[in-house]
Design brief:
31% helix, Rossmann fold, 16 helices, binds adenosine monophosphate, alpha/beta, 8-stranded parallel β-sheet
Length: 502
């Protein structure tokens, strides 16, 4: 795999060093060795230490290798990127297939965000390590110069966000008339972000004869209608039932007063010192402020949101992935682009505006078969959001009250039937504090003896290293690339534990 860059020099991929990734999460599907994948892909999978397919890979790959269209209902974290990247690489590299002509890519993957585009590119580069295909990413927020040059040299695989793609197409630097395979990833997110007309415009430019893949975490009526307009007789693969959250995520809600949120957050972060904590904030300014406050309090923390430059977002993500930053404060727009294996704790410091965002937020933990913990802070103002989320995921999120800041007032307001015109409620009846003692003002405390409450670390937790390495490892000494896979931070790997409740 060659990634185009601002520098013309390219290394033949089959001379790339074979570097074993330390560990990969265990999958239980069909062994890759038994799948009809060609040797260069098998070799790349071995390098990644991927031995068995994930369910979506097992179900999708055989059909995609045959050239079928696919409608995939799957969240990120299920291995869906490899489910489409492996067959695409195999089909593009098939014996006798043509090379890409300048400005006319052979495969197009549309991504809603730059971060996801990078992740997809990383996967293609890793799986296509032993193939001679060319790839580049185009997205907004950065100069188009390097992207244009990549396109003019010709790429087999183009990973793009819709706006910049159309922009470069309008300027004549991208032609879509030679696309053989088209992938729309995270279609629901695309719609949320207002890309529907851009997508329709792009699809209208594609050749009629093509293979199309359509992925969405959720399948609303609108999404299904959109998929019908671009798929022909598709195979349906549904991995996680609609709107159910990954089973491996331990979800909890903390009823709390607004003023106590920071204190509880820092305590949770201390308890998750072995792993990475992802904190969600509703606003960009709030995310910045919170990250700065945490940094002042001695936590290595950074923020990611739509106002940050591409370089700053990448830096934040690389630093978080490597473990340099232990905490990342993010807004929803950034949520889906965050694929970091060491996230053991997600905290909804602010509840999301839309219930669907909850599913995407907490899906940042428990990646690829790992386990994770998601804690949501619910103040009086968030009660309706909490109800919306619980309706969506069809379950009541258990309460975590064994901390000093639990508010029984808020809890009562949230758990009793809602009556119009009635406010918060008094403390007392119904609320039962478990055995604790010892803490301030009779509250249970996190530290020391029996008063540690239920919040403790689980010795049997995850101890996996980064299951995937950034593709930058392949060409560390190579030229600078426009797909910034070679982050300045390297993963420390090593053990990670997740906090859990006993
Ligand atoms: P995705 O759903 O594509 O975002 O993938 C989630 C994570 O799972 C990524 O970090 C992949 O590198 C990893 N992954 C994908 N397939 C496998 C596999 N078969 N075995 C182990 N890890 C995998």
């Amino acid at each position: 795999m060659e990634t185009h860059t601002n520098n013309a020099q390219v290394t033949p991929m089959d001379t790339a060093p074979v570097e074993k990734t330390p560990e990969a999460p265990a999958m239980t599907g069909m062994p890759f060795a038994e799948m009809q994948l060609v040797e260069p892909l098998q070799k790349a999978l071995k390098v990644k230490n991927y031995t068995h397919a994930s369910p979506i890979q097992e179900q999708a790959i055989p059909h995609l290798l045959e050239g079928k269209d696919l409608l995939g209902s799957a969240q990120t974290g299920t291995g869906k990127t490899a489910a489409f990247a492996l067959p695409i690489l195999q089909r593009l590299a098939a014996a006798g297939s043509r090379r890409a002509t300048p400005c006319a890519p052979r495969a197009l993957i549309l991504s809603p965000t730059r971060e996801l585009a990078h992740q997809i590119a990383d996967s293609f580069v890793a799986y296509g390590k032993f193939m001679k295909l060319r790839l580049t990413c185009v997205y907004g927020g950065v100069s188009q110069y390097g992207q244009v040059r990549d396109m003019q040299r010709g790429v087999d695989i183009l990973i793009a966000t819709p706006g910049r793609l159309l922009d470069l197409e309008d300027q004549g630097y991208i032609k879509l008339n030679e696309i053989e395979i088209f992938v729309l990833d995270e279609a629901d997110r695309m719609l949320d972000m207002g890309f529907v007309n851009d997508i329709k415009r792009i699809v209208a430019e594609l050749p009629q004869k093509r293979q199309s893949l359509f992925f969405s975490a959720t399948l609303s009526r609108e999404i299904v209608e959109l998929s019908k307009s671009m798929l022909t007789d598709p195979v349906h693969v549904t991995i996680t039932p609609q709107f159910t959250t990954a089973e491996k995520i331990d979800q909890r809600v903390c009823f709390i007063q607004k003023a106590d949120k920071l204190a509880l957050l820092t305590e949770l972060m201390k308890n998750n010192a072995q792993g990475l904590t992802l904190v969600f904030n509703q606003t960009k300014h709030g995310a910045n402020r919170l990250s700065e406050t945490l940094a002042k309090a001695g936590f290595r923390s950074t923020a990611i949101h739509g106002n940050k430059t591409q370089a700053a977002r990448k830096n934040a993500l690389d630093g978080f992935r490597s473990g340099f930053y232990k905490t990342l404060v993010a807004t929803d727009v950034a949520a889906r682009g965050i694929d970091v294996k060491g996230i053991t704790l997600v905290v909804n410091f602010d509840m999301p505006d839309e219930p669907e965002s909850y599913v995407h937020r907490i899906g940042r933990t428990a990646r690829a078969g790992a386990e994770g913990l998601a804690i949501s802070f619910c103040t009086n103002e968030d009660v309706e959001s909490l109800h919306g989320i619980q309706r969506l995921i069809k379950k009541t999120i258990p309460t975590f009250n064994e901390h000093p800041w639990h508010s029984s007032d808020v809890e009562q307001g949230a758990t009793r039937p809602i009556q119009r015109g009635q406010g918060g409620g008094n403390s007392g009846g119904g609320y039962r504090r478990r055995q604790g003692g010892g803490g301030r003002g009779g509250r249970p405390s996190f530290r020391g003896g029996a008063s540690r409450g239920g919040y403790s670390r689980d010795g049997g937790g995850e101890s996996r290293g980064e299951g995937f390495s950034q593709a930058g490892g392949e060409r560390r000494s190579g030229p600078k690339r426009s797909t910034p896979q070679s982050g300045g931070f390297r993963s420390a790997g090593g053990g990670q534990r997740r906090p859990s409740f006993r």
